[in-house]
């Protein structure tokens, strides 16, 4: 009888363990082909799912983007222009302008950056309030937790970088 905790057999010699490992690594060709097919099928499924997500297909969206209220918020944000979506290009321009060796020019460019940031925040606050009011009117009794921030964050992304892609053009009515 073996003592508790012992395995009941001797530890294999290194030579035996290496030989067993080498034999196990020689997979038959059919297994390799099956693995390759599974990998290709998985890749194709990911490509299809990503394409559906980019189109805005409801079944392919993550939980944070699902539902009629979130679709309404996305469309509401996508129908208007916002200073927030131009913030990143403005920051890039400010970075270039700070390289000019004139202190007044550098100071002006930094003031521009902070001004755009302030305007973007104020616009986001008003946008959030408008979204909540419009959603409450359109979907009475719905759950609106977080939709203001959801819309605000979407409005700060450049239009062509938004995911899922915008379904409406600026100026359209929803």
Describe this structure in words.
It is a single chain. With 174 residues, the protein is an all-alpha fold. It has two domains: 14-55; 65-161. 61% of the residues lie in helices and 0% in strands. It has six helices and no strands. The protein has helices at 14-25, 29-55, 68-78, 87-97, 103-138, 147-155. The chain starts with 13 loop residues before the first helix and ends in a 19-residue tail after the last helix. The mean pLDDT is 89.
Task: Explain the layout of strands and helices.
Elements: H1 14-25, H2 29-55, H3 68-78, H4 87-97, H5 103-138, H6 147-155
H/I helix tally: 6
- Helix amount: 55-70%
Class based on secondary structure composition and strand pairing: mainly alpha
Please give the number of β-strands: 0
What spatial form do the alpha-carbon principal axes imply?
Answer: elongated
The topology string of helices and strands comes to HHHHHH
End-to-end separation in angstroms reads 79 Å
Q: How confident overall, as mean pLDDT?
A: 89
Q: Main beta sheet: strand number and arrangement?
A: none
CA-based gyration radius: 28 Å
> Roughly what fraction of the amino acids lie in strands?
under 5%
> Low-confidence parts lasting 5 or more residues at pLDDT below 50?
none
User: Can you tell me the number of structural domains?
Assistant: 2
Short description:
With 174 residues, the protein is mainly alpha-helical.
Which features would summarize this protein structure in a list?
0% strand, elongated, 2 domains, mainly alpha, 174 residues, 61% helix
């Amino acid at each position: 009888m073996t003592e508790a905790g012992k395995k009941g057999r001797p530890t294999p010699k290194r030579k035996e363990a290496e030989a067993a490992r080498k034999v196990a690594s020689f997979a038959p060709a059919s297994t390799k082909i099956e693995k390759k097919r599974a990998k290709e099928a998985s890749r194709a499924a990911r490509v299809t799912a990503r394409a559906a997500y980019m189109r805005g297909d409801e079944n392919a969206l993550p939980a944070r983007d699902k539902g009629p209220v979130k679709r309404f918020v996305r469309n509401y944000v996508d129908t208007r222009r916002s200073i927030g979506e131009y913030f990143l290009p403005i920051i890039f321009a400010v970075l270039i302008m700070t390289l000019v060796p004139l202190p007044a020019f550098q100071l002006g460019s930094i003031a521009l950056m902070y001004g755009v940031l302030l305007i973007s925040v104020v616009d986001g606050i008003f946008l959030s309030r408008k979204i909540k009011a419009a959603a409450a009117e359109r979907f009475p009794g719905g759950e609106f937790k977080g939709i203001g921030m959801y819309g605000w964050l979407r409005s700060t992304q450049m239009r062509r970088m938004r995911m899922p892609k915008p379904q409406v053009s600026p100026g359209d009515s929803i």
